[in-house]
Amino acid sequence: MYIVQSIVQVPEHKAEELVEVYRNRSRSVDRQPGFVSFQLLQSETTPGELIVHMSWDTKESYMAWVQSSDFKRIHELEKAYPDQELTDIKPAVRRYLVRAE
């Protein structure tokens, strides 16, 4: 299994707005071959820290998603988000191989 986490830091007063964006996400990633699950995590101690956590069968499945037209379309839409305070946030992406379960 392959795990990808995108960690974003947003102003605390914007955290709920971003949570709503993810609650209403397109879900096109859910239909990608090899996709396992999606979770949006929020820190209990730092509410402005949000983590997009995705699980994939393999690294190759994830890389196919990143190279897909759906991925590019979704990320282009993010650039057009009307709230500039959220648009300018750049996530820190971390990728992991699951070594034991």
Automatic annotation (TrEMBL):
What are the recorded GO MF terms, alphabetically? monooxygenase activity
Enumerate the SUPFAM superfamilies for this protein: Dimeric alpha+beta barrel
- What's the protein called, per UniProt? Antibiotic biosynthesis monooxygenase
Q: Which PROSITE patterns match?
A: ABM
Q: Which UniProt keywords apply?
A: Monooxygenase, Oxidoreductase
Q: Which residues does the UniProt record annotate as the domain ABM?
A: 2-90
Identify one Pfam family in the record. Answer: ABM
Q: Which InterPro entries match?
A: ABM_dom (IPR007138), Dimeric_a/b-barrel (IPR011008), Heme-degrading_MO (IPR050404)
The membrane spanning regions, by residue number, are none
Give the organism, scientific name: Paenibacillus bovis
